[in-house]
């Protein structure tokens, strides 16, 4: 009798699982169909697809806020979204290709030595900071950005993971800002990274991170709670500059256009 009950329960469970899998397959198929129909427009309440229009506002609910506006500390997606809008890292991704980095502040692809221990990057000329800095970006600003991101003053969440192989790099997040001997700037438009190990192909891929956003030493994003909310910015194009970004935690963040 007990054996009969067990087999009956087992059959019931198997049947329920089969129905669940079938339902999931149907839902997935329906979802795929709906997504395909929405790719060229939106659906109204009646289910009809209407062509989308450019512009307007996008409002969405999120469980978190921007973590930091300081490029040395940015770690999560919301912070990256702001950085990508107002600042220029050495490399970036195109909207339709998240695999291959393309030059942004850099003039061209990174030059990697034969022994894979040296990375040389030329930066664009004519890229300026917005006010109050209001001067041309220099390679030394990127060197300083790396050095401060390794300090306890600006504890980067990934400096040690991606860039610890740089010669002379201190242990990330453990001390004050220190000069890193393995980062040199032969001129205002060239930065060179010397590595302890032949990891240049890997390290060069990480040059898309906000740690490569230039920081002017005379006007760094402060590490105090009050002033960390406001930073300067680099120009997205010679004809358009953004003066600063300001954050009020859990309340607002503003991007001020200078011209």
* Helix proportion: 25-40%
Number of H- or I-type helical stretches: 5
CATH topology of the domain at 77-257: Dipeptide-binding Protein, domain 1
User: Radius of gyration, Cα only, in angstroms?
Assistant: 25 Å
The average pLDDT is 76
The number of E-state strands comes to 11
Assign the CATH superfamily of the domain at 77-257: Dipeptide-binding Protein, Domain 1
- Major sheet: size, sense and barrel closure? 4 strands, antiparallel
Q: Globular, elongated, flat, extended or rod-shaped: what is the shape? A: globular
Percentage of residues in DSSP E strands = 15-25%
Structural class: alpha+beta
Distance between the termini: 84 Å
Low-pLDDT sequence parts: 25-40, 223-230, 237-247
CATH structural class of the domain at 77-257: Alpha Beta
Architecture overview:
- The protein is an alpha+beta fold and 259 residues long.
- It has a domain at 77-257: Dipeptide-binding Protein, Domain 1 (Dipeptide-binding Protein, domain 1).
- Helices cover 27% and strands 18% of the residues.
- The strands form 4 sheets. A 4-stranded antiparallel beta sheet has the order 5-6-8-7. Strands 9-10-11 form a 3-stranded antiparallel beta sheet, with no helix packed on it. A two-stranded antiparallel ribbon has the order 1-2.
- The protein is globular.
- The N and C termini lie far apart (84 Å).
- The model is unreliable at 25-40, 223-230 and 237-247 (pLDDT under 50).
């Amino acid at each position: 009798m007990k054996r009969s009950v067990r087999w009956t329960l087992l059959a019931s469970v198997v049947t329920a699982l089969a129905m669940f899998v079938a339902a999931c397959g149907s839902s997935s198929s329906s979802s795929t169909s709906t997504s395909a129909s929405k790719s060229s427009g939106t659906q109204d309440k009646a289910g009809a697809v209407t062509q989308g229009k450019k512009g307007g506002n996008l409002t969405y609910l999120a469980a978190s806020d921007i973590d930091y506006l300081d490029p040395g500390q940015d770690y999560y997606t919301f912070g990256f979204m702001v950085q990508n809008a107002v600042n220029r890292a050495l490399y970036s991704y195109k909207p339709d290709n998240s695999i291959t980095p393309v030059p942004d502040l850099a003039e061209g692809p990174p030059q990697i030595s034969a022994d894979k221990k040296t990375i040389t990057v030329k930066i664009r000329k004519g890229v300026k900071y917005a006010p109050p800095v209001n001067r041309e970006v220099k390679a030394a600003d990127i060197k300083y950005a790396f050095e401060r991101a390794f300090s306890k003053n600006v504890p980067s969440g990934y400096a040690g993971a991606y860039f610890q192989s740089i010669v002379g790099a201190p242990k990330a997040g453990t001390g004050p800002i220190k000069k890193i001997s393995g980062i040199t700037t032969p001129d205002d438009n060239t930065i060179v990274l010397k590595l302890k190990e032949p990891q240049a192909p890997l390290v060069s891929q990480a040059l898309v991170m906000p740690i490569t956003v230039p920081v002017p030493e005379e006007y760094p994003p402060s590490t105090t709670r009050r002033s960390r909310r406001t930073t300067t910015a680099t120009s997205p194009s010679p004809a358009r500059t953004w003066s600063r970004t300001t954050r009020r935690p859990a309340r607002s963040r503003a991007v001020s256009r200078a011209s």
